[in-house]
Structure formats: C-alpha cells, structure tokens
Amino acid sequence: MNDHKKTIEALIFASDFPLSEKKIAEIVGDLNENDAGGIIKEIQQEFKELDRGFLLEKVAGGYEFITRKEYSGIINRLMAGRRKNRLSRAALETLALIAYNQPITRVDIDKVRGVDSGGPLRTLLERKLISIAGREKAPGRPLIYKTTDDFLRYLGLDSIDELPKTEEIEDILQNDKISEELEIEQLSVESGDSGEEEVRQDN
Q1: What is the pairing mode between strands 104-105 and 143-147?
Q2: 74 CB burial (10 A radius; 0-12, 13-18, 19+)
Q3: pLDDT tens for each residue of 153-176
C-alpha cells in the first residue's frame, strides 16, 4: 500500500492535468477506483497534517497538487517577470455569463451585454476556458457555448455546481483571483498581443 501511495503521489505530481481515481487505477493496473480513492484521501490528510505549502485537492473531476492560498502573494512575486496574457473586462463579463447560464448562444450573450461579443468569445475559446457545446435547436441552429474543465481547474473547482451564487459575481470579479483582468499563467496561449491590445479588440 505504501508503494501505491508513492506511485500515486508521483503520478499526480508529474501530470499536467488533474488525474481522476479511474485514470490512476488504469495507469497503476493493480488498483481499482475505490482503492485509489482511499489512498488519495490518506495522502490528502497527510499533507494537511504536515502543514506544507501545498495541498492535494480535487479540481475539474481529478486531483492535483495546489499551493495554499495564503502564499499567493509571494508566488505572484515569483511570476512577476513572466509574460502574462490578460482577459479584458469584456471577456470576463462574457465568461461569467456563460458560466452561470450555460449552455448559452452568442445571441443571448449579446442581448445581456448590449454589444457584439464575437471578440471576447474568440479570446475565451483560444484560452480554452470555454468550448462549443453543439447547436441550439432553433432557426439558424446557432452555436452554444459552455465552460471547460480548464475553467474549473483555474478556479480550483471540482464542478460547475461549486460556483458562487449569481449575486456574488461582482465581488468575485473585483476581489477574487479572476479579478484584475484574470491573469492566467497556466492557461494562457502564447501570442504577441498585450493586455492593452486585447482590450481594444474586445467589445
């Protein structure tokens, strides 16, 4: 069991995406999902008791090591010299609308925002924060959009049901880690655009 624990720790540490109990069991081979889940709980408890600078948490349907929130300030200083691509306010508004009303069409998004949302939608698709979920059964068969596992992963959520209530969205945009134009380090797509350029392009 101890070897399995070390193996699972190594897998989660090495993975660039959250690993589910099912995926871990498939990789290890001689474990089932329940066994993997039990070992993961043990690892989680051990890290909590050790009071380390990081934790093992469930996000987007899988598990990954994340740093404790209280160290976000010092980590931001580490990342200060790295290139960051930012989302404009328009993209944030569009992302919030999709998150709370998905699946949703561009027409419905435009109605709420009062402006064309083509630019923000393209940005969010490029960042893989949203995806096309199909077409609505309506005249013209418009595309419908939904958030992705990458969106959940960035926010540290296991499912969309964990989103705060709608009335709290303004506080989130202003005070949480998706405020200040949502500086995305892990999910950013390398491009030549600056944050200012993106604000000019998005409506």
Answers
A1: antiparallel
A2: exposed
A3: 877 788 888 887 665 655 555 554
Instruction: Sketch the domain layout of the chain as residue ranges.
Output: 2-71, 89-201
Q: For the domain covering 89-201, report its CATH number.
A: 1.10.10.10
Contacts of 149 (CB under 8 A, 6+ apart): 17, 18, 60, 61
The CATH T-level fold of domain 2-71 is: Arc Repressor Mutant, subunit A (1.10.10)
Q: Which residue has the higher pLDDT, 125 or 162?
A: 125
Span between the terminal Cα atoms of the chain, in Å: 55
pLDDT band at 196 (very low <50, low <70, confident <90, very high): very low
Q: Where are the beta strands (DSSP E) in the chain?
A: 54-59, 62-67, 104-105, 130-135, 143-147
For residue range 11-62, list pLDDT tens digits in order: 999 888 889 999 999 999 888 999 999 999 999 998 888 888 888 988 888 9
CA gap 88, 23 in Å, rounded: 36
Question: Do 2-71 and 89-201 show the same overall fold?
Answer: yes
Whole-number Cα distances in Å, 144 to 108, 118, 159, 160: 10, 13, 19, 17
Query: How many degrees, rounded to 5, is the angle at CA 93 between CA 89 and CA 98?
Result: 145
